[in-house]
Amino acid sequence: MPPSDFANADIDKIVDALTTDEAILLSAGVGFWHTHAIERLQIPAVKVSDGPNGIRGNHFFMGTPAKCLPSSTAMGATFDRDLLEEVGLKLLAREAKLRSASVILAPTCNIQRNPLGGRSFESFSEDPFLSGMLCSAYINGIQKGGIGATIKHFVGNDKEDDRTGYDSIHYRTTSSGDLSPSVHAGSRNMPLHGAIMTAYNRVNGIHVCENPELLQKILRDEWKSDVMIMSDWFGTYSVDVGLNAGLDLEMPGLNKWRSLESVNRSIQSRKVTAKKVKERARKVLELVKKCAQGAPEILDGDGLERTLDSDEDNALMRKFAAESIVLLKNDKKVLPLDRKSLKKVAIVGGNAKAAVLSGGGSAALKPSYFVARPAGLVKALKEVNPNIEVTYSEGARAAKTLPTLDFDLFTESGQRGWTGSWHAHENDDSLVALPTPIKTQYVDETRMFISSSSPAGITKKWTLRMKGYLKPRERDCKFEFGLTAAGRAKLFVDGKLVIDNWTRQRRGVEFFGCGSEEETGVVELKAGVKHEIYVDFCNVRGPADGDETETIMDSNPGIRLGGAEVEDPDELLNSAVSIAKDADAVIIVVGLNGDWETEGNDRTTLALPGRTDELVQKVVAANPRAVVVTQAGSAITMPWVDQVSSLLHTWYLGNATGDAIADVIFGNHNPSGKLSLTFPKRLEDVPAHGYFHSEKGKVTYAEGLYVGYKHYQHRNIEPLFAFGHGLSYTSFNISDLRLSQPIVSGDQFDLKATVKLTNTGNITGSQVVQLYIGLPKTSELTHPRWQLRGFKKMRDVKPGESREVELVMDRLSVSYWDKEWVVENGAYDVRVAFTSEEGVGEGQELLGRFNVEKGFGWRGL
């Protein structure tokens, strides 16, 4: 029968028919991305795929080109549930089907304790209510498209350093904080079609994948969830403990714990029962059935991955990216720029030309198209004035590693990229490569995370040799190359050894912590000469100080070649200042990239890299009307902020980056994004500062409930920019706050707040109305001053137009966690505003109060 017939499967009957070995096979994956098929019982395999901002497909290396969406923090900045549901349905679900994937490994809804967290950009917000509501919308859209979603990383994965070992020490924060997004999503969401993915770390002493308190007591018993629970990749640490605790599926299937031999031995030693293994297999079968019901065409398809862009999709991508952009300052009303009045525009900054789409790690993918910042800006300018002069200067280098050479290398025939030849070794133990390749292929990328994409039939140890030609330079110059390897590598230019990252290495954090530090070398290049580039790579790490072991990279080999012309830093900065002085308009584009913000390691500073801050200060001094555009997936510090009158924060915007930024800068799109996390003035103001790092394996949540804006309000610390802040090219006010009488019926609660929103400016715009709750001051427990408990984005409000906004509160809106969810009796304060920042002025915030006569407790969702 076709695999989709499994939609009608009798799960009870199939579970009864499973042999113990078949049940064991179902409890772990196959390869990197599939569940196990059981042909005897006609059980099909299901393919899963990353990730939060796009669907990559099977391969990191030479992957299928895909739609790269804005980062999750950018999604959070939209404050728009309707838009996220539309994106889930029209973009993510469709992309999953193009990749033949039935389940998306997203959304990520961890709380951002600290913007230093390497994957901070992958989560929606520092606020659990905003995260949970947007998570719900994201999932609803995906599931309406017949695709399964995966809530991750459950729970406490708020940092990357030591992520598989550290112990998150929680007290009141477990349910009120890190679990809360899942609570909000689950209580307002249709039944989850896909899965929940366990975090790598421990919580209160026990790894999450082995934690019966979290997996069984909370998920299964209290929340009544029947969803399948899977591990993060290589995030399983035992056989029997995880099986007994409730971990249904170990992923991936490489180097797995749950082999037939290991699980059968655990059964024989009575550490786990065959019945328990079948319980785990049942949840996998239930997922397979849901996938067959949701998108049967995937299971019946050919399994091939495809790329398809349409005008409709590209327009939605562009709109989505523009909706997330946050106007932080516009003191002198420089923005939007009037293109008709401009004759000379200067674009400066390290991020202006760089192809920065997303953060790094599992969020990274190959874009099906990319509109760079200068391309989008120049295109928009020339639409109005074809003769406008646009000048560019990098000004200050921003890269952590030298930029990849994806667009600088060419094959012998002139095609962009280079050619790779795969060589088996004499045997599995040998480092000697055979001279005749078993495969030769074209490669169009110079950061190659090969992962498990080596050719079939190759030896355990193998060699990949890459050859291409560097695009000829316009002038004689010094060129610096950088070579990083998860394995070992050498770089030759014109046959001469330039970099030896083979004989002796320095361990680094690239390629999920398996790569070396970048080694560099400088070459004198001649103008107009096509210099030959050759890299010899082997998937066995070389010896390093303190680590002489030559480890085989069997699941995560990779190589990265970067490079750039050597520039004098002072001359580079001076060139930016020079072109800024003479320009009618200056656009400064600065920020971070996927090297700085990435899975696998945390940032060490909130400062922009290198001399970026100095660049901004000097360019703004030369031209005070300069517009600053920052790009980062989370918060950064801005010591120059008082000198700048116009400031946009643009996150990571994906494929449509350049067009979206141009739309906002030139007024085709009126900005309406709101900060999804607080921007502090300094690192020391961050709530988790001083206890964010793993100390002998312990990470203590000493800030308790006071994460994000709640901390700044509690301590009366003024942030750089507050959570929920975001300006518009028009103006709004709110009035007429009305609160209905609370309705309490058993353990249910209902209350409606209504306000009138008015566009008091002269441009059509959108605004987010935010509702914050203050719990009774008579409580025996301390609580944050204000907690977001409602928001609504009102789109396209015309000048002079007024609209009524209704915000509904339920029992979760007025609850706190104290061994159960508690709704206290007493007086509850209400604040409705456009930002979390208090005291913002008349017409910008409204205060109210309601009383709950009789409180109650409750559990579950």
Automatic annotation (TrEMBL):
The keyword Transferase does not apply. Its EC number is 3.2.1.21. Keywords: Glycosidase, Hydrolase. One of its GO terms (biological process) is glucan catabolic process. The keyword Hydrolase applies. Pfam families: Fn3-like, Glyco_hydro_3, Glyco_hydro_3_C, PA14. PROSITE patterns: PA14. Residues 413-577 form the PA14 domain. It catalyses: Hydrolysis of terminal, non-reducing beta-D-glucosyl residues with release of beta-D-glucose. InterPro entries: Cellulose_deg_GH3, Fn3-like, GH, Glyco_hydro_3_C, Glyco_hydro_3_C_sf, Glyco_hydro_3_N, Glyco_hydro_3_N_sf, Ig-like_fold. One of its GO terms (molecular function) is beta-glucosidase activity. Belongs to the glycosyl hydrolase 3 family. This is beta-glucosidase. It comes from Agaricus bisporus (White button mushroom).
